[in-house]
């Protein structure tokens, strides 16, 4: 429940204006939250100039007072930071600290979700990463065989041959070349009933990965293996209704880039 401390409230009406679902009203010069249509977005907590609003449903310890120096990023610096992002497929033989993995997840946790559903989930894989790799390659090997027998699409057939080779290489030498997880020490699998929410969270998580001096590759092979096959989801304890949206392969980069990469011009329609 969200509530207003009427001893602190100054009746400015800012929370009333900012409440999208119109669950707050002014009564005798004080804000009153009805908690009827409220979907707990927390805007009332954030907008109140005197910190009169609180909730007992979430931890108020998460609330941080705005500070311009700590909260502001120069636009050009942010754009350069984004331009310099790279997909990393070369990792050092070095563990990623759990504290850093938790900070990456925090970046996902505080990403906006539709109707404030907060329905994004995270599975961290470290100790069992080789077993996850084995199961994934088994699934991809079977899928590759099916594609070679039933598809005429040259791109699909190319991937099918790659998956079969990856599986055979793993069976021959499990500690050899790894074109699935690239010998990274950690995975974060991001799931949700609402794929867009998980995708947005993953984008913010990627920014935090880079800010921490780490690197990641989003494993499309892993997410493809999860489609229409329950083995990986069962092993990781992912509920059937959850969609595996991204698999972030995370580690310390074993490569250094000196500049940004070129991109084609954007396709923009102005109306």
From TrEMBL:
Entries under SUPFAM superfamilies matching the protein: 4Fe-4S ferredoxins, FMN-dependent nitroreductase-like
Entries under InterPro entries matching the protein: 4Fe4S_Fe-S-bd (IPR017896), 4Fe4S_Fe_S_CS (IPR017900), Nitroreductase (IPR029479), Nitroreductase-like (IPR000415)
Keywords from the named record: Iron, Iron-sulfur, Metal-binding, Oxidoreductase
Entry's transmembrane regions: none
GO terms of molecular function: iron-sulfur cluster binding; metal ion binding; oxidoreductase activity
Residues in 4Fe-4S ferredoxin-type domain copies: 1-28, 29-58
Pfam families named in the record: Fer4_7, Nitroreductase
Similarity comment: family membership: Belongs to the nitroreductase family.
Cited PANTHER family: NAD(P)H NITROREDUCTASE YDGI-RELATED, NADH DEHYDROGENASE_NAD(P)H NITROREDUCTASE XCC3605-RELATED
Protein's UniProt name: 4Fe-4S binding domain protein
């Amino acid at each position: 429940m969200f509530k207003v401390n009427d001893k602190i409230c100054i009746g400015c009406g800012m929370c009333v204006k900012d409440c999208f679902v119109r669950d707050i009203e002014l009564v005798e010069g004080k804000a009153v939250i009805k908690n009827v249509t409220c979907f707990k977005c927390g805007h009332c907590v954030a907008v109140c100039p005197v910190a009169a609003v609180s909730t007992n449903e979430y931890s108020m310890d998460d609330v941080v007072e705005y500070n311009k120096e700590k909260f502001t990023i120069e636009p050009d610096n942010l754009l350069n930071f984004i331009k310099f992002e790279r997909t990393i497929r070369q990792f050092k033989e070095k563990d990623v600290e759990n504290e850093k993995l938790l900070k990456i997840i925090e970046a996902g946790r505080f990403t906006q979700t539709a109707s404030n559903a907060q329905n994004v989930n995270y599975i961290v894989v470290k100790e069992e990463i080789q077993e996850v790799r084995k199961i994934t390659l088994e699934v991809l090997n079977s899928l590759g065989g099916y594609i070679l027998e039933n598809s005429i699409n040259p791109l699909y057939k190319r991937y099918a041959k790659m998956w079969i080779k990856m599986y055979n290489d793993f069976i021959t030498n499990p500690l050899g070349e790894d074109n699935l997880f690239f010998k990274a020490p950690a995975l974060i699998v991001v799931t949700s009933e609402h794929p867009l929410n998980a995708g947005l969270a993953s984008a913010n998580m990627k920014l935090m990965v880079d800010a921490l001096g780490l690197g990641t590759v989003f494993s499309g092979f892993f997410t493809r293996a999860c489609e229409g096959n329950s083995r990986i989801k069962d092993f990781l304890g992912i509920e059937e209704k959850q969609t595996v949206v991204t698999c972030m392969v995370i580690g310390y980069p074993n490569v250094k880039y000196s500049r940004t990469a070129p991109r084609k011009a954007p396709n923009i329609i102005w109306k």
